[in-house]
Design goal:
Immunoglobulin-like; five-stranded antiparallel beta sheet; 9 strands; CopC/D; FixH; transmembrane helix; transmembrane
Length: 255
Amino acid sequence: MVTGTVQAVREVESPTALFATTYGWVLVAKIGLVLVILAAAGVSRVWVQQRLGVRRPRPGGRRTLTAHAFAAGASGPPGALDPTAADETARAAGLRGRLQSEAATEHVPALRRSVLVEVAVAAVVLALTAVLVGTPPARSAVAQPVDVLLPLQGASGPSGSVQLSVDPARPGANTLHVYLFDDTGRLTQPAGITVSLTEPTQDIGPIDVELAAAGPGHYVSDGMAIPGAGTWTLAVSVRLDEFTATTARTDFPVR
């Protein structure tokens, strides 16, 4: 049970993923049904204790034995039990057992229904478990912001790097940050820069992204529009001078 709980936390990671994905809702349903099983089992346990007179021994408790003392008749030998008292005790014990049996028989349908509920819900829990195995984890089904550092490739090889950040990486308006670095890791100002979006599997793009300078080597697009879900390619083309150009690209999921 502990292992399953840890695994569920790893697959979900956040409350948002729990209530915004198919995996999360199936997991919530499974947890709810497990609670129903525990409740039904509790009802059955209480029924057995009350109707059959079964009591769970207390940890560390001492067992007690009730000894009945009977006065010996004048005609009987010393220490002998009174036959009348012994008969009455036996009849009382038999009556008690008979009453418990009759009471248990009257409530057997209720116990049967409780057990059937346990069996039916357990079968549903097993089915939900099978569904969870074949469902993508919630953490992979929720949109994740993009933050990646890529080398800039030129005709003569790598030359500097570019850092791309896309938030929240969902359909609609997104914020894009572009940082350009030279080979020493310092921000550098290029002669020109262009960014485009493409979704090859849906034949969308390239869509030019408008950038605004936000500082040396830093560009921002506050309204970068992503038309819909898919695996999008963000391409950057940097012109370092009149004769040198470098490019970089990255793919990221949009859900």
